From TrEMBL:
Domain DUF4143 intervals: 220-355
Signal peptide, first to last residue: none
Pfam families in UniProt: AAA_14, DUF4143
InterPro entries tied to this protein: AAA_14, DUF4143, P-loop_NTPase
GO MF term set: ATP binding
Keywords: ATP-binding, Nucleotide-binding
Residues in AAA domain copies: 35-162
Protein name stated in the entry: ATP-binding protein
Entry annotated with the keyword Zinc-finger: no
């Protein structure tokens, strides 16, 4: 590959990085590690690389050390595995210092992971991202031989969303009535429309979310796994959306899909939902009250973006609220988020995070009936000496903020916007 062509690609990309308006993401990358950035389509993976490049320069690196190559650039059409050496040689022509390699949309080059492994073995600093189904899969960790850390990037959290919207939400702002009002209004938009970065400010954000969903469904799931009946897959995802807030069995989902005229086995339901999780369309929580061997049998599924979930719902604000809370907890605690439901004790808690000693109920509003029910399960869980959480919370959409003393303990009532801004 002509080195001058590679230089032009690098120089042009450098100008893009320098000019781009970047909303800081709440991700910390280890300074001495190599990374592969994975996550849902359009979650902002390339922009995170831009942010990292700027951080390196701010910390003392020269721009000449930033070797950022976007393999979707048409000037690199025909680039092959053998051409990667030209990238290394071009970097040596640009700087006498150690370069930082940013390989964006690298899935376009067959066999790229061999080059990525070699760079890591040579103690080079490398950041990799891509957007096809193969890059979204957990297989990447295996194919890169443990040489890279994985950063799972999600759409905007509320903090990032407010920053993107230009809404002040610092400590002083959150003590000011009119600014709190703006935060509350934006939280409502975030709840309904989701946090896909490029969609912020769009007039028709629903169409944007629909486009992303179709690419995930058709490309990252159906095409990659050779699913022959896409309508059946669509129906399954729709039925999962209708069960958000409830635990389900795979047999129940099969029955719900078949009731609409499709044909699918329980094994296929399990496989398809696993594919959807690999593509970062869905994630699940498991019942902490179940025996370990039974936890996979009755999961609760949530969507990785509220805007995508909203495509399937009509007037289901409570589902969107719980999904937003689930997203906030997953960002903070990863796979350590469970629900807790026990037929023996009658305890039913929406979210339980044992590592953080946290229990969370979600209720759109608290009236005399719902308050007693939500508090009762939290109090009952708090009385369990082994599992008792140090903190019990009820998250509401209403501007309801107070403390309930019950059963010798205390339960915090917190509005959604404040809860999401905690993490």
């Amino acid at each position: 590959m002509n080195h001058d062509v590679i230089k032009r690609v690098i120089f042009d990309q450098r100008r893009v990085i320098q000019r781009m308006r970047i909303v800081p993401r709440r991700y910390v990358l280890e300074p001495g590690a190599n990374y592969i950035i994975v996550g849902m389509r359009r979650a902002g993976k390339s922009t995170l690389l831009y942010e990292r490049a700027r951080e390196l320069v701010a910390q003392g690196a020269e721009w000449s050390q930033v070797v950022y190559v976007n393999f979707e650039d048409e000037r690199l059409l025909g680039f092959t595995l053998a051409d990667f050496d030209d990238v290394v040689q071009t970097a040596a022509e640009l700087t006498d210092e150690e370069p930082y390699f940013f390989l964006d949309e690298v899935q376009n080059v067959v066999g790229w992971e061999r080059f990525a492994r070699r760079l890591a073995d040579e103690r080079r600093r490398v950041y990799v991202t891509g957007s096809n189904a193969e890059m979204l899969s957990s297989e990447m960790e295996q194919r890169l031989g443990g040489r890279y850390l994985v950063c799972e990037l999600m759409p905007y959290c509320l903090d990032e969303y407010l920053t993107a919207c230009g809404i002040d939400h610092g400590e002083e702002a959150l003590l000011t009535a009119d600014l709190v009002g703006r935060v509350q209004g934006a939280t409502g938009d975030y709840l309904r429309e989701g946090g896909l970065p490029e969609s912020v400010g769009f007039l028709d954000r629903r169409s944007y979310a629909e486009g992303v969903y179709q690419k995930v469904l058709l490309g990252d799931i159906a095409a990659r796994h050779a699913i022959r009946s896409v309508p059946t897959l669509r129906m399954l995802v729709k039925k999962v959306a209708e069960t958000v807030t409830s635990e389900v069995t795979f047999a129940f989902l099969r029955k719900a899909v078949c009731a609409n005229g499709a044909s699918i086995s329980v094994d296929s339901v399990i496989d398809y939902l696993s594919y959807a999780e690999d593509a970062y369309l869905l994630f699940r929580t498991r019942n902490f009250a179940s025996r370990f061997s039974q936890r996979e049998g009755t999961p609760r599924f949530y969507f990785c973006d509220n805007g995508v979930l909203g495509l399937f719902l009509v007037d289901k604000a409570s589902s969107l609220l719980e999904n937003a809370v689930a997203l906030g907890l997953r960002r903070r605690f990863g796979d350590g988020v469970y629900y807790f439901k026990s037929a023996r004790t009658g305890i039913d808690v929406d979210f339980y995070v044992p590592d953080a000693s946290l229990a969370v109920q979600v209720s759109y509003t608290l009236d005399s009936g719902s308050e007693g029910r939500e508090v009762a399960s939290l109090v009952a869980l708090a009385r369990d000496g082994r599992l008792a959480p140090r903190r019990s919370v009820i998250v509401t959409y209403a501007d309801d903020e107070r403390t309930i003393e019950a059963g010798g303990g205390r339960v915090e009532v917190i509005p959604l916007w404040r809860f999401l801004l905690e993490g």
